[in-house]
Predict the 3D structure of the following.
Amino acid sequence: MGIKQQAIKGIFWSGIQNWGSQAGSLIIFLVLARILSPADFGLVALANTFLAFFNIFIEQGFSSALIQRQEVELEHLNTAFWTQICFGIAFTILSFNISNLIAGIFQQPTLTPILKWMSVLFSLNSLSIVQRTILKRQLEFQKMAIRSLSGIFMSGIVGISLALLDYGVWSLVGQQLTFEIVGVVAFWSLSDWKPKLQFSLAHFRDLFGFGISIFGSKILTFFNRYTDNLLIGYFLGEVALGYYAVAYRVLQVLTQLLVSTGNQVALPVLSRFQGDPDRFLRVFYKIIKYASLIALPVFLGVVTLARELVVIIFGVKWEASISIMQVLAFGGIIYLILFFNRSVFVAVGKPFWRLRLELLNVSFNIIACMVAVRYGILAVAFAYVISDFLVIPASLWSLKQLVGISWQVYFKQLISPVTCTSIMITLIWVIKYLLATRVSPQIIIVLCTLSGILFYTLFLRFLAPLLFQELWQLAKLGLFKSNPTKI
């Protein structure tokens, strides 16, 4: 089967993986939010900030290097595996020993045992990075979906059980540990590749030479992603961070569902066409168009219905998260643009271009959040979104220089999604206004959601009939099975 069918099949199963796992994890998250306190979520969010930073050093950009290469030798895989195992064990030991120091900096003594237990995650994660990368390279997202769904199910049982037994913050720790353990078992069971005791310095240099820019980009992405968490945790405390973390969690779920589903398929697919510039651009434009068709109405729908969603799903104790969620959800539109733009830099073998863009982004973000934190968590949310918005011109200019995109053609892909979404949101606002004092928030959510789906589908059908027909054909094509692509 051709690359088009494989890509569509990959997107289909990537969607199953992301939508299934995110739906499952969101349900679990909602249950835990009803039981646990904002302080519990704030402490784990702070611990995860440091875990995310150390994880960058374990992966080192090797995954992107393995996916981007036209040919991968067994020596590449074995070298990457043993390198990541060594770094995983090293950072487990390091994290365990500096947990007191980190907790002291943030004046949170209860953070120490949390960090010590969660340091095991480094070793667990390093055991399955290469297996996960191979499945991505082969577009075997069906197997990845099995891993994600099984991990979500088992970890959810553990997390909710511990919460009901009044273990508090430890229910979140147990949930994460269970998810990684199940993931390791699943990836080793589903992957045909098994490591051999082999290490090649030449192949290490080969991977590291490409991956170093990805590694640098991920460090900058970390500071871009977690600067707000660090500043809120340090200056405003764990309770404020808990409110912010819940709002940001919704953005993460939406990003994973609507952007990352296509983005994790985009890199291997675009990498196949790096030697064919015309076809590369056609595929890239289609990716932007299809992603925006789904992401724009959902992000703006959350902005419109945020108050009802928070009160109904999380409870009134989380009302402080409503405005934060609206601002961050609006920022999701910006992530839509930046996510796929950055995939291009890696796909054509120019990760340094992504590194430069990340450096600009993180500079804006740190400055903006440091200025905003004195005004509260909502100001930090605005600063976070604005700093991303300022990077868009530089991102588009870089794409024009590197692959010759046409800004006119690029923005043309957004016309139909923006038009249909604008009409849909306007009608939802009208329905919400008319029903606000007449029915319960639950009924408002149901009616607005169903009306939004109906309106958007009809507008797309009549305003962009050719695009609607194209999407319908792609949806049917995605149901066919395809054979895995060899390494």
In short: Residues 479-487 have pLDDT under 50 and may be disordered. The chain has one domain: 3-477. Residues 34 and 368 are 33 Å apart (CA to CA). The radius of gyration is 22 Å.
